[in-house]
Design a protein that fits this description.
This protein is mainly β. The strands form four sheets. Strands 9-8-11-12 form a four-stranded antiparallel sheet, with no helix packed on it. Strands 1-2-5 form a three-stranded antiparallel sheet. It has a three-stranded antiparallel sheet with strand order 6-7-10, with no helix packed on it. Strand 6 and strand 7 form a beta hairpin. The longest helix is centred in the middle third of the chain and has 7 residues. It is elongated and about 80 Å long. The termini are far apart. 11% of the residues are buried.
């Protein structure tokens, strides 16, 4: 129960296994058991035992059947633009002449990985495509025949038109 609330907030972004559909937070101004004191200024009796109540939106939606359908991808207040490359992009396992690039897209279809030696992509060295067949998994590509000791920039775009940028540096030549 919540009494004398000063506010509530809700977020529909998954927040781990306890709040997979998001979270409703309600401030409880008179939490039980009471811890009461007389206000020294006006003598009013107040309960100083306050706290916050956390309710999983998955549970909340079960209790109120007339709510709109839950869609965790409908809006993310931390990123108000519609985004489908939700984990960004990454590079790794970089050597003198190769690297692995990967991303995750929420839409099925091709993901295009372009890589260049300049941040403006005026000198695109190569392009590789990978297909998203499972929006819960990652797609990755192995890029080879790179130059040692070189800065590379990459641009990843998916079938929905979302894109992300990244960069990596190949290792120096042997010796």
């Amino acid at each position: 129960d919540v009494q004398d609330s000063d506010g509530a907030d809700v977020i529909n972004v998954p927040l781990g296994e306890d709040y997979p559909a998001g979270l409703l937070v309600v401030q409880d101004g008179s939490n039980e058991p009471e811890t009461v004191f007389a206000d020294p200024e006006d003598g009013e009796i107040q309960n100083f035992n306050t706290n916050f109540k956390f309710v999983s939106l998955a549970d909340f939606a079960t209790d109120f059947a007339n709510l709109p359908a839950y869609d965790p991808n409908a809006f993310d207040p931390r990123n108000p633009e519609t985004r489908t490359l939700i984990n960004g992009v990454a590079s790794g396992d970089t050597t003198q002449d190769s690297t692995v690039l990967w991303t995750r897209s929420l839409v099925l279809g091709n993901v295009t990985f372009e890589y260049a030696t300049d941040a403006e992509f005026e000198n695109i060295v190569g392009t590789v495509e990978a297909e998203v067949t499972d929006p819960t998994g990652h797609v990755k590509v192995n890029i080879t025949v790179l130059e040692p000791g070189t800065d590379y920039f990459y641009r990843v775009s998916d079938a929905a038109g979302d894109f992300e940028l990244g960069e990596f540096h190949t290792s120096a030549e042997v010796g």
